[in-house]
Automatic annotation (TrEMBL):
Subcellular location: Cell membrane
Protein name, entry field: MFS transporter
Native species: Paractinoplanes ovalisporus
Transmembrane segments annotated in the record for this chain: 30-48, 60-86, 92-110, 122-141, 147-169, 181-201, 207-228, 249-269, 281-303, 315-335, 347-372, 384-401, 421-441
PANTHER family: BLR6921 PROTEIN, MAJOR FACILITATOR SUPERFAMILY MULTIDRUG TRANSPORTER MFSC
Amino acid sequence: MSLMIVLDSTIVAVAVPDIQRDLGFTDAGVSWVVNGYLVAFAGLLLLAGRLGDLAGAWRVFLAGLGLFTVASVLCGLAGTAGMLIAGRFVQGAGGALAAAVVIGMIVRLFPEPAAQARAMGIYSFTQAGGAAAGFVLGGVLTDALGWPVIFLINVPIGVAVGLAGRRLLPRETGTGLGRGLDVPGALLITGGLSLGVYSIVRTGEPQAGPAAAVTGALAVLLILGFLLRQHTAARPLIPLTILARPWLLKANAAVVLVFATGMGFQFLNALFVQRVMGYDALGTGLAFLPTPIVIGLVSLFVAPRLTGRLGPRPVLMAGLTLLVAGLLLLGRMPVSPSYATDMLPPLIVMGLGVGVTVPSIIMLAMAGAAPADTGLVSGFSNTAQQAGGALGLSVLAALAAGRTASFPGPTTEALHAGYTLAFQVASGFVLTALLIAAFALRTPKIKTPEPRTYASSTPQKH
C-alpha cells in the first residue's frame, strides 16, 4: 500500500500541468490536486489509527485500500476541477485508513533498534521505488493516454494488493469498537486543516480579498475547537497529556518542516521542469528519476548501517545538511538552466539527503514510545507528515504564484522567479529543522516493547 500511495503521488506530480490545462485550475489553485488528498489524509489519520487499535490493523488497512481504489475510479472519470478535488479527498481518506497502521505494525514487529532501522530502510526503499516508477510511468501514461489513466491504473494494483493482504496480513484482534471513536474531533481537525490550506492558497491568487483572512480565522477556531474537544472527549484522538511530552513535540516539529519541504519540492520542481525548461510529461519523469534511485539505494544500503552505528540523530543532521545544500542549488538556477550542470547535481544531493533523513526522522519521532503508545505516536507522526506536506505545499505554491504574478518580466522569467523563490524559502524550512535537531533533540532511550503474538491467517502445519 505504501508503494501504491507513493506511486500515485509521483504520477500526479508529473501530470499536474496537463490537469491544470484541461480542468482550468489557477496557478495557485492547482495545488489542490495534491492538497485535497493531503488534507483528508492528515485530518483522518488519528481517527484511523484509533480505529486500527479498536478493530484490528488488518481490517482497517484493507478497508482503506478498498476506499482508495474506488476513489481512484472517481478521479479518473472527473470532468471538472471540483469533481477531481472531491475524488482526491476520498482518496486521502482511504490512504489515511491504510497508512495509519503501517508504521505502528513495523515498530511492533521489529522492536529491536537495529532490526527496526533495517525495516525503516526497506520502508523508505519501497517508497523510493514507487517514486521512481511513478515519475516514468506518469510521463508515459500522460503523454500516451492522457492524465485520467494515472488514476485508473490504481484499480488493478489495489485489487492485487487487497487479495494479497487478505492472505498475508497478521490478524490483530483489536480491543473492540465499544471503546469509542472521536468522530467529532476528526471532523474538527479535518475542517481546520482544509480551511487553513484554502486560506493560504487564496493568498497566492489575484484579488483574494478578505476571503483568505476570514477562512484563516475560521480554520484557527476549528483547530482550537479540536483541542477543546480533546480535553473533554471520553476517548480523545490525542490525549492532551501527550502534547506535554517535549520530545514528541520537538521531533514532530522537525517532521512537519521536512515533509513540508519534500512535498513542495516534488510539486514545484515538476512544474519548473515543464514550464520553465520546456520538458513534456515523459521528459519530466525521466529528469526526476535520479532522485528516487538515489533515495532507494541510500535508504536500503547506507542509512540502516549509519543509523545502527551512529544513532538516528547524527544521521538526521547530516541528511538535513544535504537537503539545505540541494535546495540552495535549485534556488540559484539560471533562467535557461542546463539539466546536466544546473538541475542534475541538486537532484542527486536531494536524493542523498532524503535517503538518510526520512528513516532517521521517523525513528526519532517514534523514539521513547511505550508499547501501548505506538499506535497513538505513529498516528501523531503520520499526521505531522501529511499536515506538514499540505501546509508546506500551500505556502510554497502561494509564494511562487504571488512572485510570478508580480514579476514585470516575460512569462518564463516570471515563472523562474516564483519557483526559485519557493526553493529558497524551502531551504529555510530545512535549516530550521536542522537547528531543532542540533540544539533541541537529545535522543531518549528507545524502549523495547515485547513482541506481539499474532493469530495466523493461514492454517498451521502440525
